[in-house]
Amino acid sequence: PAVIGDTLHSFINPATRSIKLPDMPFNIGDATRLTIVACGTSFYAGLVAKHWIERYAGLGVDVDVASEFRYRCPPMPKGGIALFISQSGETADTLAALRYAKSKGQKILSIVNVPESTIARESDVVLQTYAGPEIGVASTKAFTTQLTVLACLAVTIGRENGSLSAKDEAGIVSALTELPKQVAEILHHDEEIRNLAINIADARDVLYLGRGLGYPIALEGALKLKEISYIHAEGYAAGEMKHGPIALIDPLVPIIVIAPSDDLFEKTVSNMQEAAARGGRVIFLSDAKGLETIGDMASATVEMPAVADFASPILYTIPVQMLAYHVAVHKGTDVDQPRNLAKSVTV
Ligand code: F1P
User: Fold this and answer.
1) Which residue ranges does the record assign to the SIS domain (predicted)?
2) What is the pLDDT of residues 105-151, one digit of tens each?
């Protein structure tokens, strides 16, 4: 809650309750296209941003992992802005991608947690996350603060290009300012999430499903579990299940479903039912309204606070991070220093 609050405080003007990013040497509302490039967890933050910026600012967004982007040498649009997201600001692939985009005439934005980093120094505009030191290798509060900054960026682009009304901006700002309190509320579910974690700690494979803004959170939940507990996990867009992954489901496979009661809820529920019908052990994350709708269809549930659609990915990240944490602690793996991982991948 604290770092999300700190990050919001630096971008929201408390008097006007509007979002104010640092001055930029170009008008972001004039961007013809946005290209977002990042690695790992930061890439998933980019996927959330694509959804926000396309939906609320009407601007087309391409998102790619830096390790592919840099070798593909893609053409870059005239009048385009390229955004690089990196907790450390030193990730080699992301830096190489930045230099490529710059050589192709893109304006360079970055979101980093370390303002002295190389990526920050080589950017035209730096938006800082206020995650504080990330002690553990796996990104956690870096991710939620990246999302917080990206939410502010999406609103700013929408306002500047005329896609987002002042009323809609006010609604989003109030949803964002609720977040620290709501995150604190979820932390009170610690014991319940620990018990769920103990139940899945023996699994060989775990699936995460989500739709819309929940899809990147499914990917991130699976990555966090892999990184710190070494359990094989995959995140899928829930609607993709029937195109292959459903063959994996049996009673030994826990399926974590991210399902705020938004306009995609019913479709997510029908995917959950398909999984449950094949014996999958469904853990369903939703708000009171969503949980009432599904009755006892899931093996287990976590009740989330009701949240505005826009802010849901930030909130739903917390239980999936907690779940991974408790599985790792239960298995006795080193949560802060997982095997084979480095805090910043500089080669
Ligand atoms: C990217 C990243 C992290 C991951 C691990 C290795 O780092 O893939 O997402 O958790 O720490 O590096 P960064 O570019 O965001 O610093």
Assistant:
1) 24-163, 196-338
2) 999 999 999 999 999 999 999 999 999 987 788 899 999 999 999 99
State in Å: Cα 89 to ligand 1 middle: 9
Q: What is the pLDDT of residue 235?
A: 98
Six token digits for residue 164: 């987002």
Residue with tokens 């990730």: 91
Query: Would 336 be classed as within a structural domain?
Result: no
Bridge partners of 335, per DSSP, are none
Tokens of 194: 């620990």
Quick: pLDDT tens for 279-297.
Answer: 999 999 999 999 999 999 9
160 and 216 share a domain? no
Residue in 104, 226, 267, 343 annotated catalytic? 343
Is there a single domain that holds both residue 140 and residue 231?
A: no
Rounded CA gap, 209 and 237, in Å?
Answer: 6
Residue 40 Cα to ligand 1 middle (Å): 5
Distance 311 CA to ligand 1 centre (A): 23
CATH number, domain containing residue 218: 3.40.50.10490
Which residue ranges have their beta carbon within 6 Å of ligand 1? Answer: 39-42, 86-88, 91, 94, 137-139, 341, 343-345
Q: What is the mean pLDDT of the chain?
A: 95
- ipTM score assigned to the predicted complex: 0.94
Helix, strand, coil share (%) of the chain residues, nearest 5: 50, 15, 30
The pick from 139, 147, 341 for probing ligand 1's pocket by mutation, whose C-beta has the most ligand atoms within 8 angstroms, reads: 139
Q: Are residues 244 and 300 in the same domain?
A: yes
